[in-house]
Amino acid sequence: MGGRTVASEVGGFEDPSAEVLAEAAAAFGLLASSARLHIVWALAQGESDVTGLAERVGGALPAVSQHLTKLKLAGLVRSRREGRRQVYFVDDPDVVTVVRLMVGQLMDRADRADRADRGDRSAQGAVRRLGGFGA
Fold first, then answer.
1. Which of 5, 76, 92, 135 is most exposed by smallest CB count within 10 Å?
2. How far is CA 119 from the centre of its chain?
């Protein structure tokens, strides 16, 4: 293996450096806020100014602006000036992919659970209705 140990390479993947892990942890830390995640999700669908984002995510304008500043400093969001407004967007397709994958998977899981719950309730209701015929 040429100096590599099993501990440093698992499944063909080399361990990332401490610096890369620290950067990833910082990015995930910023996305751990549901408000910031919602903002990135919204921007993954298309660019927007802070007013449009505040309306979409249901946040107060100053709070959304602060979240955008943090996301921008971390390099997860960029902006450009259009006249008097600042337009925000996600420029990194990898960030968009990660957010869409994670949130999309959780939305699908929640939908499946809701359908299963509705199916269980309707099956229980049918059993109760059918049980009433024999009594």
1. 135
2. 28
What whole-number distance in Å separates Cα of residue 119 and Cα of residue 103? 24
Q: Is 67 exposed, middle or buried, given 0-12, 13-18 or 19+ CB atoms closer than 10 A?
A: buried
This prediction's pTM: 0.70
Q: Say how far apart CA 100 and CA 6 lie, in whole Å.
A: 33
> Do 37 and 99 form a contact (C-beta atoms < 8 A)?
yes
Q: Give Dmax (Cα) for the chain.
A: 78
Burial bucket for residue 78 (CB in 10 Å: 0-12, 13-18, 19+): middle
Do 88 and 48 touch, CB atoms closer than 8 A? yes
User: CA-to-CA distance for 86 and 60, rounded, in angstroms?
Assistant: 17
The string of pLDDT tens digits covering residues 6-25 is 455 556 789 999 999 998 89
